Amino acid sequence: MLPAALVLTVALSMPALAQDTQPERRDPTAQEIASFSAFQGSAAGAPVFEIVRASRKAPWQVEASVAGAPYRAAGALCRMTQNRYAYDARAAASRRWSMAGEKRFAWLDRAGCGKPARLVELKQRIPDADLAPLIAQHGVLLLRSRLLFSGNTSCAPHRSLRFRLAAVDVSAPPYGKEELHALVFDSDGAARAQVWIRKRGAELNAWDVACSVPGAAAQ
């Protein structure tokens, strides 16, 4: 048996250790803002900075995202591209920023393609003719998939949650080989649900589901 004093020391140190492993965030410095402004020029949109490090001993990961102008695709479908840039403080001043990735978003708006509060991310390139019906019917397709939720062990505990459409993807269901369009829903971090859609003629049907809890694998 461990001495009582040692047990107390270990117990007191555990919260501090857990707190130290939590990711840290901070605002951009004036130098980082000025550096990105010089890199992008005045024509670009306002950047959104994301600066995080895994622990106090880890280096800061500095990124900036800039959204392009929304544009009309087909019918009521609107699209937008967001570019993400990474910062290297050790590089020469003119080479500190570089392209780190691109995200594509879409939504429906019959008026002027105004940017909504929540965007639908496109995980794959999807033609307008396929994408517009998926977004337009996502609520009905989610409702029709509730029966599939009940029969799926990963989704049954989450079948009563309220979900919103977060993304559209293309992939094969867990027990299938054919790639299908997939609607990705989330519930404010409580759970994420993926609903695969099979198309028969012009009709869309919920075909399969799978659910996960963000961060569960890391616990």
How would the blueprint of this fold be written?
Elements: H1 4-20, E1 24-25, H2 30-40, E2 48-53, E3 61-67, E4 71-72, E5 77-87, E6 97-108, E7 120-122, H3 128-136, H4 138-144, H5 146-150, E8 164-171, E9 180-186, E10 192-200, E11 203-212
Parallel strand pairs: 7-8
Antiparallel strand pairs: 1-2, 2-3, 3-5, 4-5, 5-6, 6-7, 8-9, 9-10, 10-11
Strand content: 35-45%
| Head-to-tail CA distance between termini | 28 Å
In total, the number of strands is 11
- State the helical fraction: 10-25%
Residue-averaged pLDDT: 86
Question: Can you tell me the residue ranges where pLDDT is under 50 for at least 5 consecutive residues?
Answer: 4-20
Rg for CA atoms: 22 Å
Which descriptor suits the 3D outline? globular
List SSEs in N-to-C order.
HEHEEEEEEHHHEEEE
What does this structure look like?
The protein has 219 residues and is an alpha+beta fold. 22% of the residues lie in helices and 35% in strands. The chain is built from five helices and eleven strands. It has helices spanning 4-20, 30-40, 128-136, 138-144, 146-150, and strands spanning 24-25, 48-53, 61-67, 71-72, 77-87, 97-108, 120-122, 164-171, 180-186, 192-200, 203-212. Residues 4-20 have low confidence and may be disordered.
